[in-house]
Amino acid sequence: MSDTEDPHEAVGAHVLHALPPEEEAAFATHLAGCDACTREVADLEATVACLAEAEAVTPPDALRGRVLERIATTPQEQLLRREPSRREGPRLDLEV
To answer: By CB neighbour count within 10 A (0-12 exposed, 13-18 middle, 19+ buried), where does 23 fall?
Structure first.
């Protein structure tokens, strides 16, 4: 993690063990002094644990059909414009 990157943006990658070793070490140092990140890490770890226990279930054909029909007839909201973060890069504006 460079000095210019916001360490708060590394919480998700930390929880998923997706940070390179040097970034993990820098985040661990940050985490030791940041109560907000400590709480967020705990929340995300609990969520990851729940997701790990989930089972994939194939919905009945009738339910799938009703959901797809509802999606096709539901008006979509316009996307809000916002500045992309450094990690995201350019953002495409999609209009429906």
So the answer is: middle
Structure-token pair, residue 5:
């990157």
Q: What is the pLDDT of residues 13-33, one digit of tens each?
A: 999 999 999 999 999 999 999
Rounded to an integer, what distance in angstroms lies between the CA atom of residue 12 and that of residue 17?
A: 9
Cα separation, 16 vs 60, whole angstroms: 32
Write the single-letter amino acid at 54: A
Residues 34, 21: Cα–Cα separation, whole Å: 20
- Give CA–CA dist 26/21, Å, rounded: 9
* pTM over cut 0.70: no
